[in-house]
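Box 4.2: Ligand-aware structure prediction
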Amino acid sequence: MHILLTGGTGFIGSHTAVDLMEHGHEVVLYDNLCNSSEDVVEAIEKITGRRPAFVRGDIRDKALLADTMRRYGIEAVVHFAGLKAVGESCAKPLEYYDNNVNGTLIVLDAMRETGVKRIIFSSSATVYGTPQKLPLTEDHPVGTGITNPYGRTKGMIEEILADCCRADDKLTAICLRYFNPIGAHASGLIGENPNGIPNNLLPYVARVASGKLACIQVFGNDYDTVDGTGVRDYIHVVDLARGHTAALEKSTVVSGWHAVNLGTGRGSSVLEIIHAFEKACGHTLAYKIVDRRPGDVAACWADPKKALEFLGWKAELTLEEMCSSAWRYECLHKDAEAS
Ligand code: NAD
Ligand code: UFG
């Protein structure tokens, strides 16, 4: 299949590109590089032995998008492109609604113009808001209770996709609700390398391990969890990438709108993550307990049953592999800023 990956040079897009290429698909990476680097194209070539096509462009540039879709005979889109920092979305809601929601409308318009009928969308467990019960199943209420503009863009895009599927019975939209993707490709050539001080736990821990940051701040130890710290469903990014390949294959035999959790079904606490990373890097890590971070939920993990039934996919890699691969990537990229 010829597949366009918006946001294809980013963290999850680059790992998905590798998996798709290894399954014989042709990919085109379309990215404006606002949060990634073109070096990723070369890293993917080193891993797969083939250079993916790359187009530098913004998803809000409909003419370039439609032209790219026609030029490469695109049959499906995996739509990763988006801004994703929760805190920044509270300070800059208009930028988030424009980039994420308006950007998706333009992707869908370009697909309609060029006759592309399949889209896989990067959604998030954040659409569930505060869990009413765990594990989270796909029929858990969505939308109400989302605590920030970033999360609301994901909820709105899911609804827009559902409306487009109601209007066109040939369209397939699969919303993949990611839990907490971490880790890196086993080669250490691609991974997660946010600019500035990381907001997310794993890249922060990796930078403390490599000595770039001094001390991990644990946001609260008074939650009702195993050790009082927040619990999340961490999933290896390589497993997550494989979930996209499975969803694309499924999109050739189903139509309509679907939502599927991509998680492991297991939760780990912040302290468990720190200790797993200590094993991977071979030394202890400094941490201190600080106040809870506003907007955080105590615990969140997936029921992964639907992914197995609908996509024939399940996560296989362990927490140990997540930490060791993230550590390998950190060691190889100590001096680089963007991934
Ligand atoms: P990332 O920032 O590494 O990748 C996103 C890519 O999109 C970047 O390369 C960026 O340059 C590009 N991009 C952003 N706006 C663009 C635009 N207007 N036009 C073209 N390119 C643009 O992030 P990621 O972690 O790989 O996330 C990919 C997707 O998955 C995002 O939509 C994100 O919201 C979603 N998601 C991520 C997580 C996570 O924890 N990483 C969790 C749930 C959902
Ligand atoms: N945490 C710390 N210290 C840090 C960073 C995080 O203790 O420096 C804690 C948080 O309080 C939370 C856990 O580590 O308990 C995970 O936090 P992350 O910021 O890594 O991840 P979140 O679960 O808050 O959110 C992530 C993405 C969202 C996405 C969500 C999906 O940032 O975009 O996963 O579940 F929607």
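In the box above, the bound molecule is UFG. Residues 181 and 316 are 13 Å apart (CA to CA).
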